[in-house]
Amino acid sequence: MPEAPRTAVDKALDLVEAVARSPQPPRLTDLAEAVDLHRATAYRILLDLVRRGWVLRAGDRYLPGTAVLQLSAAATRHSLVALARPVLLGLSEATEMMVNLQVLEEDRSRVIDVVRPERLGMITRLLGEALPVHRFAGPLALVAALEPEARAPYLRPAEAAGHPLDGPEGLAAEIEHTRRSGFAVEHGRNEKPVASLSRAVVVDRGAPLCALTVVGLDAEIDTARLLLLKQRLREATEELGRLLSSTGPVTAATAAPA
Known about the structure:
Elements: H1 8-21, H2 28-34, H3 39-52, E1 55-58, E2 61-64, H4 66-95, E3 98-104, E4 109-115, E5 130-131, H5 137-144, H6 152-160, H7 171-181, E6 184-187, E7 194-202, E8 208-217, H8 223-244
Antiparallel strand pairs: 1-2, 3-4, 3-8, 4-5, 6-7, 7-8
Helix pairs in contact: 1-3, 2-3, 4-8, 5-7
Organism: Streptomyces kaempferi
Domain IclR-ED: 67-246
Domain HTH iclR-type: 6-66
């Protein structure tokens, strides 16, 4: 059976999705090629999308508009939590540790859901809290999955707090190590007896959608335990990535397996 021709709505949605998925703000030519439209047709549709707030034009490049951002914020608090909840429960049961779900905001990440076993009741849940990149594994995993030019807003809180950015012990080196390994690891930086391990979920080669973070007592996480936690966390982020992916296969982070 022949494929039905694309409607005007199909073409508009294709362009909105292409803008949202692009790792860098695309130009008109890039978008027209990505969605298989004539350049003039893509331009006419983009004019309407800009007028309605679905796309923002900045010079010769296009960004997600305020309508997309508002819709995304609502989806983050509802759809993402609902979809991810079974994954959090499974990961917490498999590891016997606390697990949280985080998303990026303006200059931090925010914890939007938490599963905490009774035995770890002494560890703060941080539900609803905004976390800076220099103190927590979740934002570190998310920021490391961003393109370098998109990281600047998340570095400012660290700089304001006097945290070193450069040098072998600086935040930039920590972000690069996390990008290469695919995992962010923190030992007692926020709460002394607490350690955490986080991994970002990146769908369709775009920006990170969220991160899963495993949190537990530092004394329980030796080298062998850390390797097992990485495997369980990788499996969970890949499962969540499949649930969130619109086009099929997905990677939970851009790095090679650790």
